[in-house]
Amino acid sequence: MRLDNAALIFPAIRQRRWVNVFRVSAMLRYEIDPEVLQQAVDALKPRFPSMYVRLRTGMFWYYLEEIADAPKVREDYAYPLTLMQEKELRTCCLRTMYFQNRIAVEFFHSLTDGNGGMVYLKTLTARYLSLKYGVEIPAEDGVLDWRADPKPEELEDSFQKNANRYILNDREPDALRLRGTYEPNFLHLVTGIIRSEDLLAAAHAHGATVTVFLSAVLCESILAYQAQTTRPSRRKPVKITVPINLRKLYGSSTLRNFILTLNLGVDPKMGAWTLDELCRVIAAQLAAEGTPQQMSGRIAANVTPQQILALRMAPLMLKNLVMRIVYARRGESKGCINLSNLGVLHMPAQMAAYVKRMDFIIGTQRSYPNNCSIVSWEGTTCINMIRNIREPELERRFFSRLVELGIPVRIESNDPR
């Protein structure tokens, strides 16, 4: 299977500091039985052929090849999102792990995005519960029928299908670079646990959705940090990179990657910004840029170059060089940090009775030392802040600001110090 449009960049520019892996996990009310979990993983292989694959290198393109046997489950170890080495990617591009009462699946990003990954996790968890406890769970709310054949639309590259004829000119100024003391071989994870109703009430008080509100608070935190550390003439725009789930815009049911990002924020050289102003600006940018027409133009900007005959016939080494140059100019340089919100999760009542907590964690990127991912389940919102630098300054400012706004936050951390 050829890589989808979004997936092409990940193997081309992977490096030790860019993990290119994300995690979805379900914490159950009872300890995990690894033998039964392995049976569930085995059972799902025919249903998810695009997940049970390894990364292969061709003369002209990377591609995904289905593996003969499902990967073995393993006990969770170390810290979340350890680097997938090339040897591991040649074996399988996903990991299934367990620890006490938690099932976790980590995906190399060329397979799918957080939305597709959550469908897989829900279906895996449902099959595990059926095998372990004999509970019948209907195929609804993101749980697929594990016995059914995969549908063609689940395997399609929806980028190719929905590209516009016209390329959108999306030139943007470079944004602020967050920096710190790089720490190899460890990712710091700080989780803020919040009552969803408290978060929703605060967002509505500022006339915003939860995603817009949290983007504005994060933007405000970075602006305050920059104001303290950088003289006015050298300050740069602060932009929050927000992934947009295109399935909702185009009615797609693909299980492969189908997101695009928007860089939302402000330029501090224009003056000071209140939180209400940030909410209004970010909401307006999201509404203006997040339309199907605008997104189709953005998709075209990524898809059209692949159709150039000279580039298609170029050897993979040259393609990798071109993609690295393009990514350096158009990729992460336009934003400061990702804020990826999977929203409120739903699942069948028969399954929900066994599920205590859900989590979603994205890794750090090539030049973003910090990232933020969010998911809500059964009245609780988990905000996962991850970093590969020593300094916890951004998390401290962000969660402290939420508390100032009247939102109680309970903090968890994997920091050993």
What count of domains describes the coordinates? 2
- The Cα radius of gyration reads 21 Å
SS summary, helix count: 14
State the end-to-end distance. 44 Å
Spatial strand sequence of the major β-sheet:
9-8-10-12-13-7-14
| Strand segment tally | 14
- Name of the CATH first level of the largest domain: Alpha Beta
Provide the succession of SSEs.
HEHEEEHEEHHEHHEHEHHHHEHEEEHE
CATH architectural type of the largest domain: 2-Layer Sandwich
CATH topology of the largest domain: Chloramphenicol Acetyltransferase
Q: Can you give the mean pLDDT?
A: 92
Question: Helix and strand layout, with pairings?
Answer:
Blueprint: H1 9-12, E1 21-28, H2 34-44, E2 53-57, E3 62-66, E4 74-75, H3 86-89, E5 94-99, E6 102-108, H4 114-133, H5 158-162, E7 188-195, H6 196-205, H7 210-229, E8 238-245, H8 246-250, E9 259-266, H9 275-289, H10 292-303, H11 309-313, H12 316-330, E10 337-344, H13 349-352, E11 355-362, E12 370-377, E13 380-387, H14 393-404, E14 410-413
Parallel strand pairs: 4-5, 8-10, 10-12
Antiparallel strand pairs: 1-6, 1-11, 2-3, 5-6, 7-13, 7-14, 8-9, 12-13
Helix pairs in contact: 2-4, 6-7, 7-9, 7-14
